[in-house]
Amino acid sequence: MDPDLDLPSLSTCTTCRFKEDLSNYWTAVLFFKHPNGSYIRVPQMANQFIGSPNGGMTVYYIQPMNNQRVTAFKKGFRMIVGNPMIRQKNVDPNSFEARSLTFRCFGANFQSDPQWLHPGTGPLDTIDLPKGACAGGIRSNIFFPSCWDGVNIDTPDHASHVAWPTGAIPRDGLFWMAGGCPASHPIRLPLLFLEIVWDTRPFNNMWPTDGSQPFVFSMGDPTGFGQHADYVFGWEGDSLQRAMDQCTDLGGAPEGCRALTIVNDATINRCTQPEAVNERTSGYLPALPGCNPIQNGPAQATMPASCDAVSTTGGIGGTQPTSPPLPGTVAPPAPTTVAPVPTQPPAPQAPAIPKWGQCGGIGWTGGTTCAAGSTCQRQNDWYFQCI
């Protein structure tokens, strides 16, 4: 993306809570690997206390606890945290590398250890994907470095123009990190923090009998060590700087920041984009989208020697396969049972659905007859598939 582009003027809407925030936030997608070897995307759910948006990412801009002045990001600024290619981490558990990228294994109803409530702290937060089923889902905790060299809005590695603050991380994690900035990166930025809540609850009764954990990131990472995120700044004018200067209460409720304009859930949920690549990504898939073979490590992952996936070759257009409706926001408490659904899909329709295609589920209006050699099997309430 050209850094000279003015994202606010090019954008027509935002899925963020503040109207002025037209930035880009990106993370890899989590998939569930079924015992039969197929994959399905894990839906996100709204974080606790944030309303009912479709999706589960919460974005925080945090000022340091010692009242240092914070400088907003500049037009064209972008950065990345994490390395998608790594498959192991041998690091000090209290280092920035360890504490900046973690997973919270929620108990039912977003339950956490009351002694360790803050992200990246306590025994429920790990640097790799949880080894056991999480009753309330899994939350990705992603912190970005908050010191800037004051010169470069980007660098070739998208990371060396930023650095972590100096000093030791306190018991309650990066949320409460004060510290100064190193001489090489003297400008204090907002501490950018992303929470993504993955609704893994529907898959807890399909946990592998061998004890292995069944989740994998979209770049072929079954460990979670390769968790990473990208950020491209896109706030309108000086709106972020005004917010950093004026909205300094510890509560963090969007309504408390009068320098910005609140967007309601209905407006957020209307802000969507059509599919740009004619590649099937919904329902159970025989392999991860793109060319992303599973690479377990511990050696770093490598790029495939060749790839003919549509997303790589540039094929665009066509009609996307109809996707099953996702629950979007799933409000607690976490369900322990699923609602009864018909054990058979609706009456057959032509033409025959090819293997791996959708053939039924709540809201499905397409065909229900599978091609020879496969049968229509219920995967969950929303999705029946020819297998």
TrEMBL record:
Region span, Disordered: 302-351
Single annotated GO MF: cellulose binding
Domain CBM1: 351-387
PROSITE patterns, sorted: CBM1_1, CBM1_2
Keyword vocabulary terms for this entry: Signal
Residue spans of biased composition, Pro residues class: 322-335, 342-351
Name by which UniProt lists this protein: CBM1 domain-containing protein
Species this chain originates from: Cyclocybe aegerita
